[in-house]
Design goal:
Length: about 140
Amino acid sequence: MGSKLFKSIALLVVASLLLSACGVSAPGGTSQGDDTIKLQLAEPVRFNEPVTVTITVQVSKEIPEFEIYLVTYDSSIIVEGDSKWEVHAKAHQPITVSSRIRFTEEGKFEIQAMTHDRRLGGYVLLNFVKLMSHPSMLPRQL
């Protein structure tokens, strides 16, 4: 009995340590202090059909030379619109940009949204969406 209790307590301690090490992230978004970035794909997502990608960013301070990027390293994802925006970010005012992408092959995909403060020379926020091919993504039969 004592051994089972010890194992149960040890498992709970390990699980809580692992969970506390994970970053806090709102559903579909990432936060760093008061700064947030959210990346969304409009549904349904299907092969060889354009899908709208929306990035929403909010920062806690004014950043005059603020850059927002839509990034993918997979050649089977075609970006059919802008992938970089330069904006004047104002404190606590959401900025929304969008583009269209197309998935041309099956597989696992990662799409990233990131921001860059040119004055500081560093990336401020990063968020990503992972997507795995699914039968519902196949082209519709007419």
